User: What shape does this take?
Amino acid sequence: MPNLDEHPATAEDLLPLALTSYGHFTSLRVDADRRIRGLSLHLERLVRDSRIVFGTPVDTGRVRELVSKALTGRNGPCVVRVTHFDPAVDMGHPEEATEPRIMVTVRPAGELSPPPLTVMSVRYERDLPEVKHCGLFGALHARRSARLKGFDDALFTGPDHRVTEGGTWNVGFIDENGTVIWPEGPVLPGVTTALLQERTEYKTAHVTLDEAKAMPAAFATNTSIGVRALSAIDGTPLAVDHPVLSALRETYLSVPGEEL
Assistant: This one.
């Protein structure tokens, strides 16, 4: 049951979000010890995105309080989604949505570093890509298209054929020298990506789809999965046992969690 502020959300509360998708969110992986990697970065994201989406601040202390309450009685790792939206939003007057509220939902977490992904390239760029917003139709439609063709997920490319990101994850590559390459372009600044960039050497570069397929290895990153290898792009195989992939996983797992 989702909680809106301190109370269970009603269907009436959720209807405006369902009808408009106007809001933003962040998802946090909570370990069994109630610690969260990159918690401060998640809170910074909520503050930054709220100013863009609503023009209002976010009380991060309140967010911590509501997340802690939602975790009461929960055991084991889980993923918490903090959604920030205004139940009073109106399609005709979105500028009047200036009193957003906090909704918290919790689900069990899967394994970190799950099995490798096969991806299909799809030409797509998210609206306002720098914001983690609730408008997921395009990303989910791309994922659906990829899965219907036998792939696990979609890898986005722009009109210039340059790779940007995945459906709900950032993508990175490992070149022939073992260097981590993060693609430049209009992408969501991921928390897991930021944590890895703080602790590893890397380069940023424009990466075309052909260049991506020629890389020795590639990986997906987000809070839920950590570092997940890509085993193929459009059927072109990639190494899933590259030593740099193992080093990246170890680096991410070594990141100390922050207390809620």
